[in-house]
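sanity check this fold:
=====
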Amino acid sequence: MTPRERLQLSYELALFPPRLNAFWHSIRDGNTDDVSDDFLEALDDAARLHLALPEKGYASLRALERLALYQARSRAYCMPSFIRAVRARTSVARRLPKPSFPAISSATSRCPPSDVKQGRDSGLVVGSCSRRE
C-alpha cells in the first residue's frame, strides 16, 4: 500500500462511518487474517485525525477548515471511541500489543500537521454544494 493509499484509507476510516462499520462487521465475524499491518497503521492514523487541530504546519486554511468540518460531522456517530474500540478488538484478535492512543480530549494532543497537508485532496466530499462560477 502506498503512503497516498494509506492516507486515503485513514481518512475513510476516520470520517466515513460506513467504511469503518464494514471493517467492524468483518472483525466481528472473525475475519482477522486478512488485516494487514498497513491497515492497522491506517486505523491508528484515523484515531490521530480526531485529535485537536494543529496550530501551525498545515498546508492551507482551507485544508484545516475541511478537516474541522469532517471532525464535527463524524462526532455525531461517536467515531473517535468507535475507532479505538475497533483497534483494541483487532489487537486482541491478532494477539498484538494493545495500542496506546493519545487521549482525544487532551489539550496537548494535536493532529499531525502532515496529515492536514496531505489530506487536503483526500477525495472525501464535504457536501453536494456546487461551486459558484
Observations:
- The CA atoms of residues 14 and 45 lie 8 Å apart.
- Residues 3-100 form one domain.
- The chain has a mean pLDDT of 74.
